[in-house]
């Protein structure tokens, strides 16, 4: 259901006899739906599964270009749409650096460009320490 909503992460907390779900997304409007219909449906489904009352919070990711999961999803969708992989990677790196990232490393692997032999290519810009 939330595939097109650019969901970065979902945090589930379980205080006494209830459940609190926080959805971090770059596009909160898609998760919430018209007049909050979709979020209410989601709350009902979660409450039915858990068997306790559920509360759903939506948190907006202000800079999706700096969120690793969202950058990866963006590159994935571009590759599925047959965009050239080097262009997709370079654009992701440039967008992240332009928005103030200290460093970024992007790596794609597989049959790049439809080649028969699989390989790995990566781009790095800025500082990317090994201890992260």
UniProtKB/TrEMBL annotation:
<dbReference type="InterPro" id="IPR036419">
    <property type="entry name" value="Ribosomal_S3_C_sf"/>
</dbReference>
<comment type="function">
    <text>Binds the lower part of the 30S subunit head. Binds mRNA in the 70S ribosome, positioning it for translation.</text>
</comment>
<keyword id="KW-0694">RNA-binding</keyword>
<feature type="domain" description="KH type-2">
    <location>
        <begin position="1"/>
        <end position="62"/>
    </location>
</feature>
<dbReference type="Pfam" id="PF00189">
    <property type="entry name" value="Ribosomal_S3_C"/>
</dbReference>
<protein>
    <recommendedName>
        <fullName>Small ribosomal subunit protein uS3</fullName>
    </recommendedName>
</protein>
<dbReference type="GO" id="GO:0003735">
    <property type="term" value="F:structural constituent of ribosome"/>
</dbReference>
<dbReference type="Pfam" id="PF07650">
    <property type="entry name" value="KH_2"/>
</dbReference>
<dbReference type="InterPro" id="IPR057258">
    <property type="entry name" value="Ribosomal_uS3"/>
</dbReference>
<keyword id="KW-0687">Ribonucleoprotein</keyword>
<dbReference type="InterPro" id="IPR015946">
    <property type="entry name" value="KH_dom-like_a/b"/>
</dbReference>
<dbReference type="InterPro" id="IPR004044">
    <property type="entry name" value="KH_dom_type_2"/>
</dbReference>
<comment type="similarity">
    <text>Belongs to the universal ribosomal protein uS3 family.</text>
</comment>
<keyword id="KW-0699">rRNA-binding</keyword>
<dbReference type="InterPro" id="IPR005704">
    <property type="entry name" value="Ribosomal_uS3_bac-typ"/>
</dbReference>
<dbReference type="GO" id="GO:0019843">
    <property type="term" value="F:rRNA binding"/>
</dbReference>
<dbReference type="GO" id="GO:0006412">
    <property type="term" value="P:translation"/>
</dbReference>
<dbReference type="InterPro" id="IPR004087">
    <property type="entry name" value="KH_dom"/>
</dbReference>
<keyword id="KW-0689">Ribosomal protein</keyword>
<dbReference type="InterPro" id="IPR009019">
    <property type="entry name" value="KH_sf_prok-type"/>
</dbReference>
<dbReference type="GO" id="GO:0022627">
    <property type="term" value="C:cytosolic small ribosomal subunit"/>
</dbReference>
<dbReference type="InterPro" id="IPR001351">
    <property type="entry name" value="Ribosomal_uS3_C"/>
</dbReference>
